[in-house]
Structure formats: C-alpha cells, structure tokens
Design goal:
By secondary structure, the chain is of the alpha+beta class. It starts with a helix and ends with a helix. Keywords: Membrane, Transmembrane, Transmembrane helix. This is Bacterial Pleckstrin homology domain-containing protein.
C-alpha cells in the first residue's frame, strides 16, 4: 500500500516537473524526437503550440492523478486501476489530440502512430483487466481438479500429496508472473514458507485451500466459505 502510494506520488511529481519545464521553461528538448527535427519544423511546431500543449498535457495528467490520489486512502478497492487507467487514457488520448498541431506533412502519420499506440497499449490492458475480474472457476471431476481462467490447469488427484484448510493466507512477498488486484491474486507469487506458488485467491475471503503437489503449491479459495470447505473435504477424500 505504502509502496504503491509512493510510486504514484513519484509519477505525479515527474509529470509536473516535466510539464513545467516544457511549458514554462521552454525545455523542448525533453519532448521525444523534438531535438532531432530540422530547425524549420521546430519553429513551425512552436508557432503552432505543439510543445507548449505537450507540457500542458503532462501537467493536466499530474493534476488529475493528484485529485484521484485520496482514493488510495479509502476502502474503494479499484483506486489503483482508476488512477493508472486515467493516466493512460489521458496521455494516449492527448497524443492523438496533439497530432492536429503537427506540421502538415507529418500530421497524418502522427495521427496513425498515435491511434495505433492507443490501441496496442490499451487493448491488452483492457483484456487482462476484464479477464482478471472474471476470475476463475473450480470444478472437481471424477479424476482431477480443474481451475479455469488465466493460469488455470487440471491436476490429477493421484498427484496430490497433501491438502490443508488454512484460516489465514500466508504472507505473499512478491509477484512473479500473475495478476495482483485489490480483490484478486491470480498467477505465480512468492509465498513465505512455501516458495513459488500458484494462487487463485479472492482477497479478504477465508478459509484458504492449500494443495501440495510434487512440484507445485496451489492456494485457492472461493468467496463462499462453504464452497471452499466442500472442496477441501472432497479433495481430502480423493487424496487418501
């Protein structure tokens, strides 16, 4: 929590400093590619207000993120997604808007590049966000446990070495390859005392089902405690 807030403050400060330097101190060399342009193009861009508006875009993004920052200190679970989503949409959308101030010969290309960047950047993020919020489903078949969704798989009962029902989720130290949201942890994480583990965890919901395989540790739970309990009882019978 504290680390995330510090990161947000650092990003806000960076945008403010860059925006101020570009807009008010005319440090146009901070804009990517500006310094390498021909002098004639630089003059046209300055006359059209391209670098000045770039500075305003950075400052506006920083102010918006600053106004959203108090959400991090509330119980609202999607504060981080909203803050960084706002940043991406405003910046990428802003670069599309700024294309209108390009020199005429490069304006069309600038629009195309900005739009492609917008789609390529936001498209996968939207897909991952929707997929992660969809979560996962657990089903116990005749021979195996199946977990659907991202990072899901199927594991035979005969490969299960032990099953435990935990009242608390052990401390998760860091994410290796997965999705870490305020409400969900899904993927590969380092867990204190267990090492690299596969998590399918609805946060703030207990108990936690721990499944130990020969080469894998899995933590999984449901929003419904009774459902997690039933998984444990059935897997315990199958693993015996």
């Amino acid at each position: 929590m504290i680390g995330l807030v510090i990161t947000q403050i650092a990003v806000i400060a960076l945008f403010l400093i860059l925006g101020w330097a570009v807009k008010f101190k005319k440090s146009y060399w901070l804009i990517s590619g500006f310094i390498s342009r021909p002098e004639e193009e630089k003059e046209q861009l300055i006359k059209r207000g391209y670098p000045q508006k770039t500075g305003s875009l950075l400052i506006g993004t920083a102010i918006g993120m600053l106004l959203l920052l108090p959400l991090s200190f509330t119980e609202f679970r999607f504060a981080t997604e909203i803050q960084f989503g706002f940043m991406l949409v405003v910046l990428l959308g802003g670069f599309i808007f700024l294309s209108r101030y390009e020199v005429p010969a490069k304006r069309k290309r600038s629009y195309i590049i900005a739009i492609i960047l917008f789609i390529v950047t936001l498209g996968p993020l939207i897909y991952l966000t929707v997929s992660s919020h969809k979560g996962y489903e657990v089903s116990l078949t005749e021979d195996a446990i199946h977990i659907s969704g991202m990072y899901g798989d199927e594991w035979d009962y005969r490969d299960i070495q032990s099953v435990q029902l935990l009242e608390e989720m052990p401390e998760v130290t860091w994410k290796q390859n997965g999705i870490g949201l305020p409400t969900l942890a899904q993927g590969h994480f380092k867990v204190t005392g267990y090492g690299s583990s596969l998590l399918f965890i609805q946060k703030d919901h207990k108990p936690i089902l721990y499944i130990e395989l020969e080469d894998k540790q899995i933590f999984v739970n449901s929003k419904d405690p009774a459902e997690t309990q039933s998984w444990y009882e059935e897997l315990k019978r199958e693993a015996e």
